[in-house]
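Repro:
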Amino acid sequence: MDDEITIGIDLGTTYCCVGVYQNGQVEIIPDNATGSRTIASYVSFFKNQDTDTYERTIGNVAKNQSSQNPKYTLYDVKRFIGMNYSDPKIQEIIPRYPFTIKGDNNDKVYFEIEYNNETKKFYPEEISAMLLSKMKEMAEEYTGKKATKVVITIPAHFADSQRNATKAAGKIAGFDEVLRIINEPTSAGLAYGIEKNNYSREINVLIVDIGGGTADVSLLVIDGGLYETKGTAGDKFLGGSDFDSKIVDYMVSDFKRKFKTDPTSSPKAMKRFKNAAENVKKNLSTSTTSTIEIESVFEGNDYNSSITRAKFEQISEPILTKCVGLIKQVLQDTDTNKKDINEIVLVGGSTRIPKLQTLISEFFDNKQLNKSINPDEAVCYGAAIQGAILTGVN
C-alpha cells in the first residue's frame, strides 16, 4: 500500500539508526528534535519537578540527562537481552551499572525502576521496544506514512533466545510484522554493495564489526549478488563500552591519587566519568591528546587532566588484542589464508580507533581497509535495502 513503508533498524548497544529505501535510494532518517542521524540507546524515567509528573525520555535527550538521573536511566540494554541473570558474563558486568539489575524466578534479567510512585519491573525487550517505537515514530514523521514492517539487525553470534527476544521487542513496539532479523555483518555487506565492484569471480569479504557493546568478525563469500556467510567469530561483551571502562578506570585511579577520596560510591560521579570517557575516546580518534574537565565531580572536587593517544592505546591493549583475535579465529575456523581476503570492511563506531585500524591493516600485510560508508550507518543502510528486497520495492 502506498501509505505504508518498510524500514530497517540497527538496534545498537549504544546507538540506534533507522533507514528507509525510497525514491531509488536509502535515506537515513534524522531525529526531528536534534537532527542527529543516530539515536543514543538510552531510556530515562524521571519525575518532572516543575509539573510534579512522571515522564520518560528516549534517545539523545535521555543520555544528556543521564548523569543527573543515573539510577533510572537505562543503557547498554542489548547486552542483557535474551540473557540469563546467572550467566557469569552478566554477573561480571553488573557492577559497572548505576541502575538496578535483577533476575526473576526464570533467571531472566530485568531492570527495577521507581516510576509513578511504585517499583516497576522492565525486561530488556521492553526497553528495546521503547527504542524501536522511537525509530518507528521518526520514520513515520519523516515519510508521512505508516511504518508497518521492519527488518532489525542483530550480532551474528546472538543465540536463539536473543534473536527471539529481539523479535518480541519488534512486536511490542507495534510493528505489524518483523520481516527479518538479519545478521549485522550480512547487512553491512549489503550496504557496501560489494557485488557491484565488478569482480568476475567470487570474492572473500571480511566484515569487521565492532560497535558499542558487541563485536563480530564475519567472512562473507560474495558471488554476483549472492551472499554466503562462511564463518563468524563474535563476542557479545566486547566493544566501545569496554574501551570507555578502561578510560574510566584510569581517570578514577588518577582522581583517587590526587584527592585521596574514592568517587566509585557515587553513581552520579561515575556516570559523569563514563560520559567524559566516551568523549575522550572519540577525541583520540582524530587528535593525539584529549583534555578532561569535569566540574565538581565528587565532594566538590573539579577533575582536570589529559590523556594521550599513546596512553589510551596502552591501557586498551587487552581489548585491541581481543578484537584482532576474532579475525584470527575466523580465518582459522574457515581454513582461509589471510592473502585470500579480497576486501576488509570496517563497521561500527569502535573501528574508528586508529590503533585498531593499524593493527588490522598490519595483520593483512598493510592491506588498505574499506571505509567508504559511515561505519555508524552501514548496518542500518543494509537493513533498509533488505526491507526493500523482501517487499519488492524498486
